[in-house]
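Each field is listed here:
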Amino acid sequence: MREAACSELGVNAPQVTGSQGCLSVVSTSDEEAHSGEETTSHEGLGEMAELQTVPRTSFLKRTAKQLSKSFEDDYDLKEQLGEGAFGLVFRCVLRANGTEEHAVKVVNKERLARHSLIALLGDKNTGREGEVDLHGCLPHHSNIVGLRDCFHTPSTVRLVIDLCKGGDLFDAIRRAKMESRRRSRDGALTEHGAASVVRQVLSALVFCHSKGVVHRDVKAENVLIEKPIDLVPLDSVAAVVKLCDFGLAARCWAADGPVLRDPVGSPDYLAPEVARLEPYGQVADVWSAGVLLFACLRGRLPFPARTDQGVLEMVRAGRCVFDDGWAQVTQEARSCTELMLQEQKERPTAEEAVRQPWLQ
């Protein structure tokens, strides 16, 4: 059941697993745009040739301490930060200096179905790379939550990642939407703030794509804010956001073109070619970034349907609803949004999109 709150914020959506030309831009009144309801949520460029020679198990080998050491040997576990369907997230501190903070995601293997465990750890029999391999193969990037360590026990997997103290973009958009209403306006983030956020997300995608990694689940919940926005507002030059959660990531090089086929992602952020079960590639992430920009600017998503099926029908048609509130948004911001919401063959790459003047 899609709840009423999402028609306005429009960012949470359950994950889905298992023609050319521009998008169809539809303008409606605000009343029509509010008719949708929310769905609940589930939970520097390197040389391409360099990475292609790295074995699938490179990250696991690089963190071989997981076999000879326990998590407790290197880290002190602190307070719980959050909870997901398959585990918990805690703050932890590096024992070596007693001050370096990280987060640790503790996944309970017993709660994972076999396909979910393979998605996390990969499958050496088939050569499939999992989240640990794909996330772990990425060198440091300021706009990607880094995977620092991985520890295994018979019952758990512990992933040590960067700690972000500002929450996620979903909550930031919701707060901005409420503040906008208090001022009798209808919007969310400022244009400067929205441009900054999406520029950083696109920068992360340029980096991932250069390493042959497609994220496949870019959405507001998967963008973390480094510092509390009360201290560092999102429209500040000091604000940093980071792309996280590589649980649906896949290997795909730009030269491969659209070779991926499995329909995974979150309905409201899914690219049309994915929803149509067509082959797709790296630019599917760019569509999702376009939807993210839409949400940042308007505080809602472009597909006001009451059910996930209704959303997917609109996505397949590429029918994005630009409501009357877009009159408050500059043409430059709208054009940048529309650019990323093109059909697959016309859609820019992440590298092309991040160069758009409005984003600078």
